[in-house]
Amino acid sequence: MNLDPLLHPVDDAVVAVGKGVVTLVGGRCRTCTRVHFPLQACCPTCGGIAEKANLPSAGKVHAVTVTALPVPGAPSPTRIAMVQLCADVIVQGVLQAPVAIDDIVHVVGREIAGPDGPLLGFAFAPGCGDA
Amino acid sequence: MPESAVLGVGMTPFVRRSDLEAPVLGRTALVQALVDAAVDWPDIELVVVGAVGLGVSAAGQLVAQMQRTGVDAVAVENASATGSAAFALAQDAVASGRVGLAAAVGIGSLEAALTATQQVPRLDLRTVTGAMLPPVLFALRAARRFHLYGETIEDHARVVVKNLRNASQNDLAQRRTPKSLEEVLASPMLAEPILRDACCPLGNGAAAVVVGPMGARPGAVRVLASITGSDHWHPAGGSHPDPSATARVASAALARAGIGPEDLDVVEVHDAFAVEELDYCEAIGLCGAGEAANALAAGTFDVGGTVAVSPSGGLLARGHPGGATGLAQVVEVTTQLRGRAGHRQQPGARTGMAHMIGAGGICTVHVLGGD
Questions:
Q1: Can you give the pLDDT at residue B122?
Q2: Do B240 and A114 touch (CB under 8 A)?
Q3: Which phi and psi (to 5°) does residue B91 adopt?
Q4: Max alpha carbon distance in chain A (Å)?
Q5: Residue pair B244/B50 in contact by the 8 Å Cβ criterion
Q6: Any CB–CB contact under 8 A between B186 and chain A?
Q7: Does B259 score more than 90 pLDDT?
Q8: What is the pLDDT of residue B1?
Q9: In the A/B pair of chains, how many CB contacts fall below 8 A?
Q10: Which residues of chain A fall short of a pLDDT of 70?
């Protein structure tokens, strides 16, 4: 995808790591080592100190839907999935193509039209990408 | 320490739009509850107002509709579980002995609250992933159930058919026209597999309850348990409510009441979406995991079945006007336990539960028992 690598992210959880390539950033607890997403002020499980942790770039589809309800920056109808990126984290995001539960998908960047210009978001695409 | 009991209930019709302001609706329900309880307003020592979308001073707005008695008044807000929170605080004040008589009033529409939160469009992690769209969240939950249990869209539509049938016997319900399975399946798709008919309507209305010590009053219904809990973190905690909250809170409430799920005759659940009713029936323990759709199809959750689930029509059909909903559940359970529910009466109902989820991670369960 031809994304501008200098786009401002829609959220600090989305970080550009290359042209059109993004990674999702969550938190890992220094005490219990559990990972969470998005990054919280402290570990939401044990209250320990949380530090930034990159999430895996691919995972397995947990559930999927398609809706005509408006999702900013996404084509209509919009396909949306919950994706298990690691044992501790399931992330919801827009899909770029049809998939089924238990399929493997990977994180890609997507441009989202904002009021002051385009923003960098993320989506899921079929396959494991470069992971 | 005194036991608390529901002494009187009141409720306005739930409607799509009302010409009456929310505090006026609240007054109407409160006066009904006072009359039902044979209690005079000046005898109420505490009024807890559950208000959604009314802005500041909701308790003052309600009290201003009544005779000025200087009553202790407080407002609470817990999203969809707002009315439940009002009831919890009112009954706790009585059960603790702090006051002799309390009232809980639920007012304010979900639509007003949604409008208030959506006035400033924003782009953030939740909006751009569809996580701010409740039909999407519950479509994903339904899709997961399809995958795990082999359920179908027909299984979920049967929840709607049952609850519309129940609501057709409830003069105060918002959706009172029964539909066949085929008619429900023909309703527009909002997010696969969630049909529009499988979502609760937005509406307006009010409900109220008078709470006092359990005594020899005719029609009093004992509060056996009132438990509220909030979510634990879980893998999808960034966008979805905790799926284990209902099991934890309902289990604690049943333990407090000294009964098991098999003892429940009537249950009002937070069925804002049809899939939720199936989830919560299992979480409460009315059946095993993955068994709710078959149990429903077999009539287990019908009025006249093993346990009547959402006999009022539930959020899906009685309606879900924000602040009033949790109290409307208490009104229904009380009416059932008094044996006054007419054509939707669960025969021999002695014990009932009211269960609500508040967006943001709150679950409240009340267990009531008749004599």
A1: 80
A2: no
A3: -70, -30
A4: 43
A5: no
A6: no
A7: yes
A8: 58
A9: 110
A10: 1-2, 5, 130-131
> What is the per-residue pLDDT across B220-235, written as a single tens digit (0 to 9) for each?
999 999 999 999 999 9
The continuous run of DSSP H or E covering B329 comes out as helix B325-337
Q: Is the pLDDT of residue B216 over 70?
A: no
- Number of C-alpha atoms within 13 angstroms, CB side, residue B171? 6
Number of H helices, E strands in chain A: 0, 10
Residue B77 to residue B112: CA distance in whole angstroms: 13
Report CB contact under 8 Å: B192, A65: yes
Q: How far apart are CA B62 and CA B342, in angstroms?
A: 31
With tokens 């807000």, the residue in question is B77
Residue with tokens 């016997």: B169
Comparison of pLDDT for B30 and B360, the residue scoring more: B30
What ipTM was predicted for this assembly?
A: 0.95
| Mean of pLDDT over chain B | 95
Q: Count other C-beta atoms under 10 Å from residue B115's C-beta.
A: 12
**Which residues of chain A from 35 to 94 reach within 8 Å of chain B, CB to CB?**
36-38, 44-45, 62-69, 71-74, 78, 80-82, 84, 87-94
Torsion of CA B144, A83, B357, A67, to 10 degrees: -70
Q: How far apart are CA A53 and CA A38, in angstroms?
A: 10
Tokens of A56: 């895996």
Exposed/middle/buried for B147, CB within 10 Å: 0-12, 13-18, 19+?
middle
| B74–A contact, CB cutoff 8 A | no
Residue scoring higher pLDDT (B120 or B128): B128
Residue pointed to by tokens 């005079």: B40
A96 Cα to chain B: minimum distance (Å): 12
